[in-house]
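Interim report to the steering committee. The following record documents the input for CobW C-terminal domain-containing protein (384 residues).
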Amino acid sequence: MEVVDEDSPPLAVLIGETSETRPAESLGKPEEYSRGTEGGPPVGVTVITGYLGAGKSTLVNYVLNGKHGKRIAVILNEFGEEIGVERAMINEGEGGAVIEEWVELANGCVCCTVKHSLVQALEELVQRKERLDHILLETTGLANPAPLASILWLDDQLESAVKLDSIITVVDAKNLRQQIDEYRYSSSFPEAYTQIAYADIIILNKVDLVSPDELGLATSHYVEDLEKDIRNINSLATVIRSVRCQVDLSKILECQAYDASHIAHQKALLEDSKSLSSFIHDYSIRTLCICEDQQVDLNKVYLWLEEVLWEKKSDVDIYRCKGILSVHDSDQLHTLQAVKELFEIIPLRAWREGEKKVSRIVFIGHNLDENTLRLSLRACTIVD
Ligand SMILES: Nc1nc2c(ncn2[C@@H]2O[C@H](COP(=O)(O)OP(=O)(O)OP(=O)(O)O)[C@@H](O)[C@H]2O)c(=O)[nH]1
């Protein structure tokens, strides 16, 4: 691995191949980042993912040219031959964002071969400058965001220089229907599904290109139907429609989607009436929600999560999980979240007066079986 010298901006970081994979572990033991010499709060990293041509670079351009006054660094991950092309296509902002550094990661997909260089590039970015407000990481169109989230999602208590702010997936409204229809009843699925499943924010882009389909649906209905399809895969993400990724920047930067307090505010976890699992289930990747009125034993929950997240029995693969827990012998509302094998449970705050003490967990994953998950959560409850 070679890294640029100290005095010049790291225009390129060349990466050697590594087959190393991160072992399954709880969030208590992530790779540590050292805090920059200037200290200060960690710099938020927004991962931008999306299928080929969906509009990722358009979004980066839009953010860089926005009037938010933030100093933004961009990390591009493209395969070798595209390097330089991507850079040329991105139009650095005028009077809006200040691009502090530009790092391109070559020779591999960021999700599998370059993660150690990514960590190093991030550390350098944060340490080299006094003030950097945000980092955008644009991934190659084929990237699966899961390993990235594992690298970037860090425990609040650690002295971290960077922090995953959110995963944004840009979706092409013109082509998504075809992808969904093609894979609806199939056991396989494209990267586009995985990217939707991991997203905290989904930008449904290119709505200007959507025309009424052969069935005569009005365009607005067509887009509504697309949104429903997206929500069937991932009911927790915020979906924003756009043309050329022109979105309200306050909705996509500084989201803190991985903070425990954010989870506790998610409507889906607090609403009693609506069950996410009432959606039509014709997808291999979907969202479901399970609830339990009895208090749970925290130790049992840890063991249970290790089993379901790490062992992947019966081809069940949980990508993302968020929940609130009512824990035995505690007056605290606990939040739970997981990204692939990593998970954390945090006591967030005291239960409020009149608040219904329940445990409610939303899973996004592949081959999820509601009954099995519900029964296994029930097995974590305290039996009198
Ligand atoms: N009509 C229309 N075109 C768009 C919109 N958003 C992006 N485009 C165009 O779509 C093409 C692809 O956009 P990019 O931003 O390069 O997409 P990308 O996801 O970065 O593409 P890759 O890096 O190749 O995966 C460009 O020609 C954009 O100008 C939109 O909302 N409407």
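The first strand starts at residue 43 and ends at 50. The committee is asked to note this result when reviewing the revised timeline.
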